[in-house]
Amino acid sequence: MTIIALIISIVLGTGSLAIGYSQMGLTDPARGFVLLGALWLAAHWRKWYWFSSVGLLVTIIAAAYGVWHQFPIIWMLLGALGGLLGWDLSDFARRLSYAAPMDDTSGMERRHLERVGIVAALGFGIALLSVFIHIRRLAFEVAVGLVLLAALGLARMVIMLRKY
């Protein structure tokens, strides 16, 4: 189940970036993203797990570059999300391969995929919401308060996830 989700996320990430870049007339980088996806899948099959970090770095930088140069935002968001999910699922598949035969690997897979799916859906929804909602002016104190609240929420989420 993890392998199927991994393949889908890598294809989603690199394919979305390829579509976004090709829509802007940049066909060579689009071909490069298709090649990156194929290499990422081949590297996972060859158990070169370090390549997922390279894939994450390339997809995040490419998505940031696309957002900076006003490429279609939906493709850049999906590209970054797919890269992040591919990196996470590749690491999870590596850790799952070390599980003992008596461990409940299917239960661990199901729980991890549920958590990752919820976080990915919420993250994508908030990112998409930020594209449509613009606040023209925000007091500095309110911005600092929101940043502190976000940091507190992230810290609590990390603490909660470490318990599992």
Structure description:
With 164 residues, this protein is mainly α. The chain contains 6 helices and no strands. It is flat and about 55 Å long.
Keywords:
single chain; 164 residues; mainly alpha; 6 helices; 0% strand
Structural class by sheet pairing and helices? mainly alpha
Task: Estimate the global geometry from the Cα principal axes.
Answer: flat
What is the quaternary state of this protein? single chain
Mean pLDDT: 87
Low-confidence stretches: none
User: What distance lies between the first and last C-alpha atoms, to the nearest angstrom?
Assistant: 20 Å
Helical element count? 6
| SS strand fraction | under 5%
Helical amount among residues, as a percent range? Answer: over 70%
Number of β-strand runs: 0
| Rounded radius of gyration (Å) | 18 Å
Order of helices and strands: HHHHHH
Main β-sheet, in a few words? none
